[in-house]
Write a structure and sequence with these properties.
The chain is of the alpha/beta class and 346 residues long. It has two domains: 138 residues, Nucleotidyltransferase, domain 5, CATH 3.30.420.40; 178 residues, Nucleotidyltransferase, domain 5, CATH 3.30.420.40. It has eleven helices and ten strands. The strands form two sheets. It has a five-stranded mixed β-sheet with strand order 3-2-1-4-5, with helices on both faces. β7 and β8 form a beta hairpin. α7 packs across α9, α8 runs antiparallel to α9 and α9 packs parallel to α10. Zinc ion binds next to α4.
Length: 346
């Protein structure tokens, strides 16, 4: 029954959590940096790293306090060490190493994307495998064939933008707010999702995704086809030309296409692979329409859907501590040479 401290700092959330036995969340603290990045409409890596540095130790302290345990009761320290923004990852990995060394506890490096697929397991110990796994977040969009929660192979992934990134860009185009996913979701509420004809990328027989065409199609549909190139590009219309109703229709049409692309590949993957359920995690799986459509596609295939609760869809450290605990129980430990790695294709 290992008690594991998890540390997460791969993007713009500084998080720490204590999880017992991979499932029982004793605490989960997330310090978000949204206020720092809002004016730039996206995460600024240098600002993110500095904010992690200021917050990491207080967040760890809070997580131990909320779990009502002291450091001596921890069996291991888990840290998200790949993939992510390198400066951000280094802060979490450095803090985890310092804690592991000073407390003489084992260190376990965890893949952040795989950890998103542990989020549904935090509430559910009875998940069966093999499973299909969907990660839909701001940095990643991928389908996995999961032999068990720590052994998976990628079936397809995005060849350009991630689906969450597309939501964020759509929000910039429609001036809906930051972060873009929840802003588009609320702007889309009540809009006509068939008002704009937006493309769903089809990449032959593969289970890959592509979102950059959808983003450009939305931009042109809203502001017209541009003239000129680069810095001199001029759009015929500004966003102010749209009525509130038209903005809402555009957000709904975008959301329908973005989610449609996920559902289409899930449907195809479920046709091609014998699995016992679908696991889904990552920030975009907090989206209510996506949650409804995932429920429908699973019910069409007669399979159960295992979704993370909304607070564990977005970045958090409970998923790191949970997967870290599962890896530790299987004998995985890392040395002080554990590296932070920005990109990994797994
Ligand atoms: O998993 P996450 O917190 O970070 C990454 O690992 O990338 O995901 C953040 C992404 C952002 O792009 C955000 O706009 C999107 O998830 N997101 C949503 C919703 N909530 C967050 N997208 C659509 N609908 C939502 N309700
Ligand atoms: Zn994430």
């Amino acid at each position: 029954m290992p008690v594991v401290l998890g540390i997460e700092s791969s993007c713009d959330e500084t998080a720490a959590a204590v999880v017992r036995d991979g499932h029982e969340v004793l605490s989960s603290i997330v310090a978000t940096q949204h206020d720092l990045h809002e004016r730039y409409s996206g995460v600024v890596p240098e600002i993110a790293s500095r904010a992690h540095l200021e917050r990491i130790l207080p967040v760890v302290q809070d997580s131990l306090q909320e779990a009502s345990i002291d450091r001596t009761q921890l069996d291991a320290i888990a840290v998200g060490h790949e993939p992510g923004l390198i400066g951000s990852l280094l802060v979490g990995v450095g803090a985890a190493k310092a804690l592991a060394l000073s407390m003489d506890r084992p260190l376990v490096g965890v893949n952040h994307v795989h950890a998103h697929l542990w989020s549904p397991c935090l509430d559910d110990e009875a998940i069966t495998f093999p499973a299909l796994g969907l990660v839909a977040s701001g940095g990643h969009t991928a389908l996995y064939l999961m032999r068990d929660p720590v052994d998976m192979s990628m079936l397809g992934s995005t060849i350009d933008d991630a689906v969450g990134e597309a939501f964020d860009k759509a929000s910039t185009i429609l001036e809906a707010g930051y972060p873009g996913g929840p802003a588009i979701e609320s702007l889309a509420a009540g809009g006509d999702d068939r008002a704009l004809k937006l493309p769903i990328a089809r990449l032959g027989d593969s289970l890959d995704f592509s979102y950059s065409g959808l983003k450009t199609a939305l931009l042109y549909a809203v502001r017209g086809r541009p003239e000129g190139r680069g810095r001199d590009v001029i759009y015929p219309r500004s966003i102010e030309a749209l009525s509130d109703r038209e903005r809402s229709d555009a957000a709904a049409s975008f959301q329908r296409a973005a989610i449609g692309a996920l559902i289409r590949n899930i449907d195809r993957a479920l046709e091609a692979h014998e699995v016992t359920c679908l696991l889904a995690g990552g920030g975009v799986t907090a989206n209510t329409r996506l949650r409804t459509e995932l429920t429908e596609v699973c019910s069409n295939h007669g399979l159960p859907l295992r979704l993370a609760r909304k607070t564990f869809c977005v970045d958090n450290a409970a998923m790191i501590a949970g997967l870290g605990g599962a890896l530790y129980s299987r004998g995985v430990q890392h040395g002080m040479d554990l590296a932070a790695t920005a990109r990994v294709a797994r």
